[in-house]
Write a structure and sequence with these properties.
This protein is of the alpha/beta class and about 550 residues long. The protein folds into three domains: about 5-40 and about 215-305 and about 475-535, FAD/NAD(P)-binding domain (3-Layer(bba) Sandwich); about 50-80, no CATH class; about 120-210 and about 310-380 and about 410-465, no CATH class. It is built from eleven helices and 18 strands. The chain has helices at about 15-25, 60-70, 130, 135, 145-160, 185-200, 220-225, 275-285, 410-430, 445-455, 515-535; strands at about 5-10, 30-35, 95-100, 165, 205, 210, 230-235, 235-245, 250-255, 265-275, 310-320, 340-345, 360-365, 370-380, 390-395, 400-405, 490-495, 495-500. The strands form four sheets. Strands 1, 2, 7, 8, 9, 10, 17 and 18 form an eight-stranded mixed beta sheet that branches. Strands 5-12-13-14-11 form a five-stranded antiparallel beta sheet. Helix 1 runs parallel beside helix 11.
Length: about 550
Amino acid sequence: MTDAPAFDLIVIGSGAAGGWVAKEAAERGLKVLILEAGRALDPVADFPPPDHEGGSRVSILTRVLSILKGQSVQARCMSFTPQTAHLFINDRQNPYTTTPGSRFNWYRSRQVGGRLHLWGRNALRISDLDLKAADADGFGDTWPVTLEDLDPWYTRVEKFLGVTGEPAGIENLPDGSYSGPHPLTKAEQKLMAEMAEKWPDRPATTCRIIHHMTDRRTPPLKAALDSGNAELRTNAVAERIETDPESGRATAVTYVDTTTGARTTVATRAVAAAASTIESVRLLLLSKSARHRNGLGNSSGNLGRYLADHLMVFRAGTLPEIEGMGTNHDPYDFGQQSGIYIPSFRNRHGPEGRDFLRGYSLLGSVGRLEPGWFFMAIGEVLPRADNRVELDSTKRDALGIPVARVTLTHSDNERAMIRDMSAVLKDLSETFGLPDDLLGKEGLVAKLAYKVAGPLVYTPEGALVPGSSIHETGGACMGTDPRRHVLDSENRVYDAPNVYVTDSASFPTNPFHNPGLTIMALSARAGATIARDVKSNRPETGTK
C-alpha cells in the first residue's frame, strides 16, 4: 500500500485561468493546491487612491524612474501608471529573450490574481466563424470545440461574475447573459447613432464588461478558497512537473520558494498549468525527462509553436467641448475606459477586396476619464509555426531557471491588415469629426518622450509591438490529432493525460475578440473535467 497524494490537483497560477480551474475542481470535492509565483496583495495598501487631482494617466517621470529600478519593459505598457507600477514584475529579476529580428514586449504580473488587476474586463464570446475559420480559408487548424460546447461555460462565467452589455444579434459576436446594459456617455450615444446612419454595414454595440473587483479579490479564487477544499501558496514558482518514467503521467510538482530559495516537491493526482500562455509553455518545456525528452507534451514537436498576439493600432484625440467622467475614478478600473465595440471588420470568406485574411474589431470611447476620445483596432495574427516560445540555452532568471525565448514576427498578411486598420481609423476620425491630435495636447517633455520611446512600442507600420495587447495565445494548441497537437479537446496533454493546460496557450488560433472570457470558460470546463477524471481514477484505499 502506498500513501495517497496530499492533493488531487495542483493548479499553477491564480489568475483568470487558475482561479476558475481551482473553483470548479474544489467545489466538486477535489483537494486543490494553488501555486502562485507572486505575493499576496493587501486590498488597502496595494491599491492607494490617486495622490493628485487630474493629470495624465501616462506619467513620464514614473516610467523613467521605474526603468532605472529594473522595469525597462513593463514601463512601456499602457496600463503602467504611478498607481499600478508595483503590480508589474521586475524585468531584471524575471528576464526573457527574443530572437534576432523579433520584438516582443512581455507585460507580466506576479501576484495573487495575476493580471486581472490590470485588465480591461472585456467579456466577449468567440463565434463559430472564429472557431472554424480554418475551414473557410485553410490557414491553421479548426478548434476542436464549438460555440455550442462553450455556451454553458460562457453562461456560467457571465452569471457568476456579472457582465454589463446588451444583445446585438451580430453574427460574429454571440450574445451572452447580461446583468444590465453597459452605460454609455452622452457623446458615445450620439456617436453610435451617427454610426448607424453612416456605417450601416459596420454594426456597433456597447462593450460587454465584467463587474469591477472593488474589494480587489478575484471572485473565482475566493470561491475556491471558501469551499474549504483549496489551499493557496504564494511566492511559489513552479519549476517542473515530475512524471512517472513508465506511464509518463504527472506525479508531482517541484516549486521554488522565492523568499527562502527552498525547493519543495508536492505529490498530486493531476496538474493544471494556468500560469499564462508563455509561462505555461515554459513550464512544460522545463519538465523534460527521459520519457519526455523535448519537454512534457512535445511528442508532436509543436510545443511552443503557433504563438500569437493581437495586432493593435491606436488613434486618439481631444474634445475640449466634451465633459468627461472626471478624474475621481478608480485608477485600477480599466474597464471604465471601454464604451463602443464594432466587431464586423472581417473577411469571412476570403479577401473580399482586401489583401488580407481574417479580420479585426474596433473598441473605443468618447468622453471617458478625460474629455477626449480613443479607438483601437484589434486584429488577428495568423497561426505560424515559426512564431514560438523556446527555452534560452544560456540565460537564467534570478532563481537559476532557464528563461523563455520568444519569437513573434508579422507576415505580409498582418502588415496588410495594419494598413487597413490605419485607413479605417483615419476614416472614422474624419467621418465623425473626431480630431486626431493626441500629441497636440501634450507638453514638450511628453512629446520628446514619445519620440524617443516610439521605436520601443511601435512597429515601422504603426502597430503596437507584439505583446502590447497582452492577448498572447498558442504554444500548446488543442486539436484532434496527437501527432500535431499538444492538447485534446478537453485541454488534456496527449502525452500525459493527467496534465491540463487551460489558459490561452491552448488556443489553436488568435480570434480578434478579447480572449479573457474564453480563457475563463475553458478553464471552468477543464476544472469540471479534471474533477470527473480524478474521481474516476482515484483509488478508495490509497493504492493503485
